[in-house]
Amino acid sequence: MNKIVYHGSVSVIEKPEYGKGSRQNDYGRGFYCTESLELAKEWACAKNTDGYANKYELDLSGLKVLNLNAPEYSILNWLAVLAKNRTYWQRSSISEEAKRYLQQYFYIDTTKYDLILGYRADDSYFSFAQDFAANAISLEKLSEAMHLGRLGEQIVLISKRAFTSIRFLAAEEVLSAEYFPKKSARDKEARLQYRRSKRTGADVNEIFMLDIMREGMKHGDSRLR
Question: Which H helix or E strand runs over 65?
Fold first, then answer.
């Protein structure tokens, strides 16, 4: 099975290299792509500089894929992976205990896979996740927030095998004058919708991080579906 994917960058990348990138990205070191050309163009101009939307063909045949948005996983598995890789974490007792709990009961060992599919956590979305860890919003509110701004999924190549399965097709120049405002507007709209959602308050049956820890909920718990 082949898939067309894009990578936004300040440069043309004809041959993605295994072992490059920051360990502190959402899913650790890897090559981050999207199926959306428009999102790749926004990522290319993330720092308000011109860039390129690199286009690739990805052959999924034989690759072991961790799909964090699959039914057998919950948003807590995604958050546990995020907490493992992101260095910044709120310095409150609840947040730090939440991080330990997520790591113990929801973390998925990503080293067993070639490819990861999951939400993209830019600064806005990471702040939503931090609010949940601090018990400020419910699990239901966090799940809603992850769809604000329509960031969609990102596809991350993490193994040597995965890097042999991607083929460069073309690169399109992207102008920051057009796409940086689009990225800023998407982020602004997501934050605005999130603030509106927080103001609606929580239902008595919604689940908070403290509930998860107090009730000893773990991966696969039916109450988290």
Answer: strand 65-67
The pLDDT tens digits along the chain (225 residues) read 899 999 999 999 999 999 887 777 878 899 999 999 999 999 999 899 999 999 999 999 999 999 998 989 988 999 899 888 876 666 667 888 998 999 999 999 999 999 999 887 666 677 788 888 889 889 988 888 776 655 667 899 999 999 999 999 999 999 999 999 998 888 887 777 777 776 776 677 899 999 999 999 999 888 887
CB proximity list for 205: less than 8 A, separation 6 or greater: none
Q: CA-to-CA distance for 96 and 105, rounded, in angstroms?
A: 15
Give the DSSP letter of residue 133.
H
Return the amino acid letter for 46: A
d(CA 86, CA 23) in angstroms, rounded, equals 8
* Contact criterion met (CB below 8 Å) for 178 and 184: no
Question: Does residue 74 contact residue 224 with C-beta atoms inside 8 Å?
Answer: yes
pTM: 0.87
